[in-house]
Design a protein that fits this description.
Helices cover about 30% and strands about 20% of the residues. It has about 350 residues and is of the alpha/beta class.
Length: about 350
């Protein structure tokens, strides 16, 4: 029997991407879509690409929960906590693509999101999961905090260096660039075509809300508090993230040790590719897939390790990773529905 899945917030970019991927999942039946803005309308009226493939009408949230075994929430922060409570009360699994359950510290969450936890008891059982790093904590749980897109690219790119104590962690610099879908479907001046086309600039410098999420993950991996300098940029492309990260190598650490750490860590990971020496990760090679490509570079003059990590922000950075997490908590093949091949050009 197939797992019944509902997508709440199905008409946003992440929600629509979830629908696209779930339609091809061998073990899932997409039973319900919910959109507050487009309730009563067909998804294919909003996104004509779904015509004849998914003509489901968007229904209200409670109906969607009732029709499902697992609920995916693609909502702005502050809206997922009450939905999670409803899902748990009705015995549904809940996967949150928003920010409500990503930070473990209520103090940090309040600082960065200007509100306390509304459902602290649910936070205690929610599991934050980048599968390649924390899959052992996710199996069988009821609430998953799906990681953010920038934090996913950073965590996967930095994990082997930090776990193996190859780098200094007092001056970690993360320089990331994202396509405009990362800003969501809502219209803003920043993402207005004349303003973002033929343009490239940083934003929320030193104050992006993904900063504490990145630090939380790296601190867990390193076994100590790690702070980072994180600067995101807006690329004039639809999708993709490139994170270029700079870390000081510890004395005596060699290029060969770095490569061995990365290749060992990701040797059995289908979705992480450590590129050969001389290659550089490029977002075009991971588009429309759940892949993360990592390239390793060393500036021998300064003793700096430079890691380039690239993902599709809508797949590995959102919908694809959410499905990977669903597969984990539902006891399915972790790769089910995610064997996606990137376009060659």
């Amino acid at each position: 029997m197939k797992i019944k899945a509902a997508v709440i917030g199905a008409t946003g970019y992440a929600g629509a991407e979830l629908v696209r991927l779930l339609l091809n999942h061998p073990d899932v039946e997409l039973t319900a879509l919910c959109s507050k803005s487009f309730e009563g309308q067909k998804l294919s009226d909003i996104y004509p690409s779904f015509l004849g493939l998914c003509d489901k009408v968007c229904i209200n949230q409670s109906e969607a929960v009732d029709l499902s075994d697992v609920v995916f929430a693609c909502l702005p922060h502050g809206l997922s906590e009450p939905l999670a409570a409803e899902c748990l009360e009705k015995g549904r699994k809940f996967i949150d693509l928003g920010a409500d359950f990503r930070l473990e510290s209520e103090e940090e969450y309040t600082e960065w999101y200007q509100k306390p936890f509304d459902k602290p008891e649910i936070h205690k059982e929610a599991v934050y999961c980048v599968p390649e790093l924390f899959r052992d904590k996710a199996q069988g749980v009821n609430v998953i905090a799906n990681p953010g897109c920038y934090p996913t690219s950073a965590a996967l790119g930095l994990a082997p260096a930090i776990i193996n104590d190859l780098v200094e962690t007092d001056s970690v610099i993360i320089d990331s660039k994202s396509g405009v879908t990362g800003a969501g479907r809502g219209l803003t001046q920043t993402t207005h075509y004349p303003d973002c086309n033929e343009a490239f600039s940083p934003y929320k410098v030193g104050m992006h809300r993904h900063t504490p999420e990145i630090e939380q993950t790296l601190s867990k991996l390193g076994g100590k508090k790690i702070k980072v300098t994180f600067v995101p940029h807006l690329l004039p492309v639809n999708r993709g993230i490139v994170s270029t990260m700079y870390l000081k190598l510890k004395d005596g650490v060699t290029k060969e040790q770095v490569r061995e750490a990365y290749e060992t860590k990701y040797a059995n990971e289908q979705f992480v590719r450590v590129l050969a020496d001389g290659a550089t990760a490029n977002l075009k090679n991971v588009k429309f897939t759940n892949m993360c490509d990592i390239s390793l570079h060393i500036d021998s003059r300064t003793g700096t390790l430079i890691v380039v990590s690239t993902i599709d922000n809508m797949v590995k950075g959102a919908a694809g990773q959410a499905i990977q997490n669903m597969n984990l908590i539902m006891g399915l093949d972790e790769n089910a529905g995610l064997n996606l091949v990137p376009p060659a050009f």
